[in-house]
């Protein structure tokens, strides 16, 4: 059975149309499936078309959260309820040619742990393409992973794999990166873009800033979770070294007879040293916390064996 | 997934992490087998750390042919520490011996490590007496690193980098390796479990196959790890003490700047409103002191809130009574 999870986030398409489009290829491939739409309070009316379909016997379930909970929580709650061994996560708008879903599912059935769609070739506006490209550069540049089109939002995976990938905050967007990090085999599959995904998507600057922070946060978590002192210690050492250099120069000038009391540069040097020490101290606290929880952490996963 | 063959009472487990060792694994298994010909209840745990060559295929065959050999395939390349920890977790022996997968260690030394452990130690480290490696890129950095590690951790081990080590199960139950801790297992064992540690000279062969998997660029990492281990050894039960000491230092500096400010004011007759830099510096250090104290409290909270590890007590043995 295939479970299709649709977290309904901003600017959704008419959900009943989306359902018909996505269900058609699954049905003609002879698969049993269920759809789970997760809606937040603001989108309550969006589900009315679905209710009519469900009344006609279509395998649709609609979950309504009590508050705005965000995409990650929407996905997680649907995951906890879904029944299919294979799970499709599809955004509430058109991204890929619906028939390509079966291609992605086939990849998972032939061994991939996660198959993520790459919209290729692109047919939409150059602005969207530029964004995808820039995001890819950013992810590669920060060493977070190797996914070309992280924004496609269409992922297929085995349910137990998805349940084991730690997801929180806004990280559902980066699910393939987290999966790679956990040691799962992630395949990015080029599939045709949906012919109707054309409009240029431009967000407010705040959204881009949030995405940037997300990526930086993700990279930090992926690389330094187990060794906070490597990050904070190095940062602190650099700050303190810069400060010490300033202080050294001032010290030499003092020996040459200059008065220190009216040199604001002294404050800068001291501030840098203090900041450096703060950073190192923070890293040490991080190490204490990591050490205290070391016995409960699993640092590896054995292939073919569930971890918990 | 291979079948778990249930060997009753495995006494000795050999743990070998493998990463792209397709050529070595066959001869290695053979060497272990012949070295342990006199022992009965042993097992060999091969941990594949996400190799991309034929290591897994070869190891799978070897494991299928001999029930004493088990393959633990990790899902990806995690690095040596998690691979080692995986091997320790899977090993069932009362005594566990770890070694490298590149044939530079000699399985013939395993019985000697075991014999040394039987003398009453929790950890026996091998040291490479006539090390067959490049002088400048391997031996010199390692010599320096070992001196630093010995000095800082106070654990008297000549060769931390030698993978051939033997452990008692009771010790392994008390240490949890993460990050790159495999380099400091003796230091960690001493710091967190109060282990009795000894060392013996072991053979060392030149590399026959494959590439060395270490680089030179790890000094900063090693230093950060050392700082961590030292801190954990001294302060894991009382983080506030560490941070309070730092706060005391910062307070002293703050006082020094305050005195300097006063001195300048009195000597040169400067009015307080024209004094910025020296009082500013005093305030800065005072701020650091407060910050460190608060951080120390956070450390205490973290300590109280953590569930104690299942084997948190140090290793002891009854001497009489």
What do these coordinates show?
The complex is a heterodimer of chains A (308) and B (321). Chain A is α/β, with parallel strands linked by helices and 308 residues long. Chain A has two domains: 2-224, Spore Coat Polysaccharide Biosynthesis Protein SpsA, Chain A, CATH 3.90.550.10; 228-296. Chain A is built from ten helices and seven strands. Chain A has helices at residues 15-28, 48-55, 71-81, 100-109, 126-141, 159-164, 175-181, 205-224, 228-255, 264-292; strands at residues 2-7, 33-39, 60-64, 86-89, 114-119, 155-158, 186-191. A seven-stranded mixed sheet of chain A has the order 3-2-1-4-6-5-7, sandwiched between helices. In chain A, helix 9 packs antiparallel against helix 10 (264-292). The longest helix of chain A has 29 residues, at 264-292. Chain A is elongated, with a radius of gyration of 25 Å. The model of chain A has no long low-confidence stretch (mean pLDDT 88). Chain B contains ten helices and seven strands. Chain B has a seven-stranded mixed sheet, sandwiched between helices. Chain B is elongated, with a radius of gyration of 25 Å. The longest helix of chain B has 30 residues, at 239-268. Helices cover 48% and strands 12% of the residues of chain B. Classes of the chains: A alpha/beta (308), B alpha/beta (321). Chains A and B meet through helix 9 and helix 10 of A and helix 3, helix 8, helix 9 and helix 10 of B.
Offer a quick outline of the entry.
The complex is a heterodimer of chains A (308) and B (321). With 308 residues, chain A is α/β, with parallel strands linked by helices.
Keywords, please?
heterodimer; A: 308 residues; alpha/beta; Spore Coat Polysaccharide Biosynthesis Protein SpsA, Chain A; 2 domains; elongated; B: 321 residues; seven-stranded mixed beta sheet; 10 helices; 7 strands
């Amino acid at each position: 059975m295939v479970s299709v999870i649709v977290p309904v986030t901003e600017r959704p398409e008419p959900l009943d149309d989306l359902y018909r489009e996505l269900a058609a290829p699954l049905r003609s491939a002879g698969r049993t499936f269920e759809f789970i739409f997760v809606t937040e309070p603001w989108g309550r009316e969006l589900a009315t078309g679905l209710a009519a379909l469900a009344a006609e016997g279509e395998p649709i379930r609609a979950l309504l959260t009590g508050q705005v909970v965000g995409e990650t929580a929407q996905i997680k709650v649907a995951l906890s309820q879904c029944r299919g061994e294979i799970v499709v996560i599809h955004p509430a708008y058109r991204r890929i040619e619906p028939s390509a879903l079966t291609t992605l599912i086939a990849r998972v059935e032939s061994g991939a742990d996660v198959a993520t769609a790459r919209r290729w070739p692109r047919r939409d506006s150059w602005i969207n393409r530029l964004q995808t490209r820039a995001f890819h550069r950013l992810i590669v540049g920060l060493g977070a992973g190797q996914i070309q089109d992280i924004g496609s939002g269409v992922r297929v995976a085995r349910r137990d794999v998805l349940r084991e990938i730690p997801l929180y905050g806004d990280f559902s967007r980066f699910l393939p990166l987290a999966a790679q990090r956990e040691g799962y085999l992630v395949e990015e599959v080029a599939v045709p873009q949906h012919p109707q995904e054309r409009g240029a998507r431009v967000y407010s600057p705040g959204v881009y800033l949030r995405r940037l922070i997300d990526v930086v946060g993700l990279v930090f978590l992926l690389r330094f979770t187990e060794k906070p002192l490597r990050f904070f210690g190095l940062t602190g050492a650099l700050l303190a070294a810069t400060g010490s250099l300033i202080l050294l120069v001032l010290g030499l000038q003092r020996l040459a007879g200059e008065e220190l009391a009216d040199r604001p540069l002294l404050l800068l040097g001291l501030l840098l040293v203090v900041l450096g020490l703060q950073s190192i101290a923070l890293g040490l606290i991080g190490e204490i916390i990591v050490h205290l929880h070391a016995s409960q952490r699993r640092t590896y996963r054995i292939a073919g064996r569930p971890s918990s | 997934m291979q079948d778990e063959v249930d060997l009753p009472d495995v006494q000795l487990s050999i743990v070998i992490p493998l990463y792209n060792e397709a050529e070595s694994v066959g001869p290695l298994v053979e060497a272990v087998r012949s070295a342990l010909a006199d022992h009965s209840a042993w097992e060999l745990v091969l941990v594949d750390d996400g190799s991309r060559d034929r290591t897994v295929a070869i190891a799978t065959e070897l494991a299928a042919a001999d029930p004493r050999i088990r393959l633990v395939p990790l899902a990806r390349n995690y690095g040596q520490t998690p691979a080692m920890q995986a091997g320790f977790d899977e090993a069932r022996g009362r005594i566990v011996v770890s070694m490298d997968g590149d044939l530079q260690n000699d399985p013939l030394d395993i019985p000697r490590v075991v014999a040394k452990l039987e003398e009453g130690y929790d950890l026996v480290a091998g040291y490479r007496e006539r090390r067959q490696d490049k002088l400048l890129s391997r031996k010199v950095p390692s010599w320096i690193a070992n001196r630093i590690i010995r000095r800082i951790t106070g654990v008297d081990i000549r060769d931390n980098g030698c993978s051939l080590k033997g452990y008692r199960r009771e010790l392994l139950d008390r240490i949890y390796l993460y990050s790159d801790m495999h380099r400091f297992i003796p230091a960690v064992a001493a710091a967190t479990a109060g282990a009795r540690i000894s060392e013996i000279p072991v053979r060392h062969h030149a590399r026959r196959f494959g590439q060395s998997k270490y680089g030179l660029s790890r000094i900063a990492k090693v230093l950060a790890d050392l700082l961590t281990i030292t801190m954990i050894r001294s302060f894991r039960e009382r983080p506030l003490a560490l941070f309070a000491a730092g706060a005391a230092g910062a307070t002293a500096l703050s006082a020094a700047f305050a005195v300097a400010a006063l001195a300048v004011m009195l000597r040169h007759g400067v009015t307080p409103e024209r004094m910025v830099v020296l009082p500013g510096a005093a305030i800065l250090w005072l701020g650091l002191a407060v910050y460190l104290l608060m951080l120390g409290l956070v450390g205490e909270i973290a300590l109280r809130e953590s569930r104690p590890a299942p084997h948190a007590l140090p290793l002891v043995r009854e001497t009489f009574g």
